[in-house]
Amino acid sequence: RAKEMGGRRVEVFAAHMHADVVRRLELAADLRRALQEKQFAVEYQPVVDLATSRVTAVEALVRWWRGSAFVPPEQFLGPAEDTGLIVPLSEWILKEACREVAGWRESSWDIGLSLNLSARQITAPRFVETVSEALAESGLPASALTLEVIEEMLVEDAEDTVAKLSELRALGVRLAIDDFGTGYASLAFLRQLPVDMIKIDPSFVSGLGGDETLTLLTRTIVRLGHDLGLIVVAEGIERPEQLELLREMGCTRGQGYLVARPMPARGVDHLMHTTLQNTA
Ligand code: C2E
Ligand code: MG
Ligand code: MG
Ligand code: MG
Predict the structure, then answer these.
(1) Measured distance CA(176)–CA(14) in Å, rounded
(2) EAL domain location, by residue (predicted)?
(3) What is the pLDDT of residues 41-97, one digit of tens each?
(4) 44 C-alpha to center of ligand 4: Å?
(5) Burial class of 59 by CB neighbour count within 10 A (0 to 12, 13 to 18, 19+)
């Protein structure tokens, strides 16, 4: 009897596993098709200089409309990474974003591009060449491109990754550590890395004002970043008091719904026109 029930439990478990495997396979097939049928889009979220409110850069964020349903990046990036589809997808995002930002710069708008990298993309063959090609084809200067990685990509068995990123940095490309403070890059380690910028994770910024520990930690990260000569960007700014505190702490740049939401290229066109008009 007990054995029977145990067997049944295994069956139920197997059925769940089966459904999960099927879902993943379907997602993988859909991703492949989406890539062929160009169902992906790039949105751009402005990053501003906190002292002047000037837009210094836009961060490219991939978007997928699976039919009429929006799929958040966090749901499909893992499977894209597992299947290797992240490599052609990332190449498309890179080229598309470089081309669009180079276009905005041609209108005399001095902005940079921030791009999220995936672990597999960096270790894929020809990664460095692909980035160089994207710059050459678009005319975007290397110094206008910032590549964002998370701490995990730089710490464990990351010699190949660090070597490739260093190669790109030697060409003038900037490097940023995204979601800073959530990983386990030690402060001493940070000094040895070829990094130009840290982006403070929203989990710190969200506590600004309300939570004393998070406020203290944010202040410490800002000071640390500056002491190391890094540009410090605060992410996930949603409320005015967060913005005020970050300004008071001397944080260099900021990003968040309060400042601007991610928007399609047309939205950035519009933002550019109003910005250029106001400064003319
Ligand atoms: P991330 O690079 O840390 O990007 C910031 C995320 O926070 C974006 O989510 C953005 O829409 C969201 N965000 C911005 N301001 C606020 C705010 O004020 N409040 C809140 N709650 N959220 C805010 P998104 O677009 O869903 O992207 C999630 C993550 O997926 C990114 O985190 C990044 O790790 C990854 N990702 C997005 N696009 C790409 C891409 O093109 N390639 C790669 N490899 N990863 C990407
Ligand atoms: Mg990012
Ligand atoms: Mg982040
Ligand atoms: Mg993130």
Answers:
(1) 43
(2) 24-276
(3) 999 999 999 999 999 999 999 999 988 899 999 999 999 999 999 999 999 999 999
(4) 15
(5) buried
Taking the C-alpha atoms of residue 159 and residue 165, their distance in angstroms, rounded to an integer, is 10
How many angstroms does the Cα of residue 51 sit away from the middle of ligand 1? Answer: 24
Residue nearest to atom 17 of ligand 1 (CA): 236
The span from the CA of 5 to the CA of 101, in Å, is 61
Please indicate whether residue 118, judged by its CB atom, sits closer than 6 Å to ligand 1.
yes
> Separation of 223 CA from ligand 2 center, angstroms?
21
Element (H, E) at 146: strand 145-150
CA distance 62 to 260: 17
CB 140 within 8 A of CB 113: yes
246 CB within 6 A, ligand 1: no
Q: What is d(CA 32, CA 66) in angstroms, rounded to the nearest whole number?
A: 12
Q: Which of 58, 111, 81, 26 is nearest to 265 (CA)?
A: 58
Residue 58 host element (H or E)? strand 55-66
Q: pTM for this structure?
A: 0.93
Which ligand minimizes its atom distance to the CA of 176? 2
Gap between the Cα atoms of 178 and 197, Å rounded: 9
Q: Distance (Å, rounded) from C-alpha 230 to C-alpha 199?
A: 10
Of all atoms in ligand 1, which is nearest to the CA of residue 179? 3
